[in-house]
Specification:
The protein has 57 residues and is mainly α. It has one domain. It has three helices and no strands. Helix 2 crosses helix 3. The chain is flat, with a radius of gyration of 14 Å. The N and C termini lie far apart (29 Å).
Length: 57
């Protein structure tokens, strides 16, 4: 069983993005490496775009 089948909310890309950004932000804050959530969101979007372009090639 895949994670998306078990937890239906993970089918929504916005929910996945919010969970990842929040998790990375919290992990970095614990290590006193503060990065704004806005910047993490931008990095997530950039990574998604790059991943798609590699898959299409």
């Amino acid at each position: 069983m895949k994670l998306r089948d078990r937890y239906r909310q993970f089918r929504d890309p916005a929910v996945v993005k919010a969970n990842i950004v929040r998790s990375v932000y919290a992990s970095m804050a614990l290590e006193n490496q503060t990065v704004s959530e806005e910047r993490l969101s931008e990095l997530y979007d950039q990574q998604r775009r790059e991943g798609r372009s590699v898959q299409q090639a």
